[in-house]
Amino acid sequence: MSGTTITSGEYIKHHLTNLTYGQYADGGWGFAKSAADIKEMGFWAFHLDSLAWSVALATLFFFFFRLAAKRATAGVPGGLQNFVEWIVEFVDTSVKESFSGRNPLIAPLALTIFCWVFLMNLMDLVAVDWLPMIAGIFGEYALSMDPHLVFFKVVPTTDPNITFGMALAVFYLMIYYSIKNKGLGGFLSELAFQPFGKWGLPANLILEGISLISKPVSLALRLFGNMYAGETIFILIALMYGGGMVLGAFGGLLQLGWAIFHILIITLQAFIFMTLTIVYMEMAHHEH
Amino acid sequence: MNINATLIGQSIAFFLFVLFVMKFVWPPLMAALDERKKQIVDGLAAAERGHHEHELSEKRATAVIKEAHEEASAIIGRAQQRANEVVEESKGKAVEESERIIETAHSTIEQDTNTAREKLRAEVSLLALAGASQILEREVNETDHQQILATLSAKL
């Protein structure tokens, strides 16, 4: 808990607000101090916490995999290499199963997505109060801010900006490879002349357009929805710690159970994001 | 639930990290994996070859042992034959030798007989002479009768 003076609603809201840095209406840049501030900033604002954790986790992933790649030998692999090879082979198998084209980007893309999304999801298993509390203490004493105004969301995938950022990146790649492999005409004719032939052109455009747009949207929202819901449940469970011994103990049990269940979810979500990306890439490479 | 520029930042970071992984992580790992796969394939082939060679040499060894067995039994046969020959040979020799010994004994006996006969003859003539001289009870001129005695002795 961040303090005794705030209500449950405030507590939840606090936990679900990002550390936002952006431009105020009057032109100055600064950290947002409330939801109203964030609204005022509009599009040109950054969620520093999401971005920082996202980049930090990607760097961590890259660091370890690069280390393993540097030391990789064909001989008996060590612990790190063994672990990395296990993941790489798993991803490689998934790619080979779903992707029939030849593109050196797809497998590294899948590996990055799987590991990165998994690590970002993994942050959900860190008890919800720890890192925000540390951030609050840091903000209070180092930056002399009101700790209640230090917003700090730890799980980047509970931020739709992060999931949409990745889904849109996948979407760009989809469009790029579609046009590259089928030509602009091929890509557009797939939109215009399927599934009803040229006389059903408007219906085709609507159907195919929706199906095209729905790909990144569903990709982003599925991950975001799952993680946001999981995070919210963790926050609700954390609320129980303030409700006395019995409720607190029950909350502890619940948290443990939910965390164990969540291990499955975070892995599954990372895997789904990866697999769908591979499938979309396959669709972009071949006529369907 | 605010969509803002974080999205762009994440997209850029995403492309950068994918690029990094494609450049620096994936190729060396795949190279190591492929290399190991090749080594394992080679190792299996070598094992197969070794197995085959082992089988071949086992066959060769069996053949050599069989040959040696045959040779040994041939040698034993020859040796037995030779032994029989030797036995036969020595048997013949022994017979010859015994015949020779018997012959020698025969000739010795004959010789002894002759010698004894000579002796006997001489003694008998002496006895006859003594008997005759006693019978005559007179001096017999030995030289006169020498001729008669010699004739007698030759007749004996």
Description:
The complex is a heterodimer of chains A (288) and B (156). Chain A is globular, with a radius of gyration of 22 Å. Chain A is mainly α and 288 residues long. In chain A, strand 1 (20-23) and strand 2 (29-31) form a beta hairpin. Chain A has helices at 8-15, 35-41, 48-71, 79-98, 106-122, 130-142, 160-193, 201-239, 244-285, and strands at 20-23, 29-31, 45-47. Helices cover 93% and strands 0% of the residues of chain B. Chain B is built from 2 helices and no strands. Chain B is rod-shaped, with a radius of gyration of 61 Å. Chain B starts with 5 loop residues before the first helix and ends with a helix. The chains are: A mainly alpha (288), B mainly alpha (156). The interface between A and B is large, with 54 and 33 residues.
Q: What descriptive keywords fit this protein?
A:
heterodimer; A: 288 residues; mainly alpha; 3-stranded antiparallel sheet; 71% helix; B: 156 residues; 2 helices; 93% helix; rod-shaped
Number of strands of chain B: 0
What is the approximate shape of chain A? Answer: globular
Largest sheet: spatial strand order of chain A: 2-1-3
Number of helix segments of chain A? Answer: 9
N-C termini distance of chain B: 172 Å
Count of discrete structural domains of chain A: 1
- First-residue to last-residue Cα separation of chain A: 53 Å
The percent of residues in helical segments of chain B reads over 70%
Considering residues with a beta carbon less than 8 A from a beta carbon on another chain, report the largest interface and each chain's count. Answer: A-B, 54 and 33 residues
The portion of residues assigned to helices of chain A is over 70%
- What oligomeric arrangement do these chains adopt? heterodimer
Major sheet description of chain B? none
Tell me, briefly, the overall form of chain B.
rod-shaped
* Helix and strand run of chain B: HH
Characterize the largest beta sheet of chain A: strand count, sense, and whether it forms a barrel: 3 strands, antiparallel
Q: Measured on Cα atoms, how large is the radius of gyration of chain A?
A: 22 Å
User: What is the percentage of strand-forming residues of chain B?
Assistant: under 5%
Q: Count of helices of chain B?
A: 2
* Overall number of strands of chain A: 3
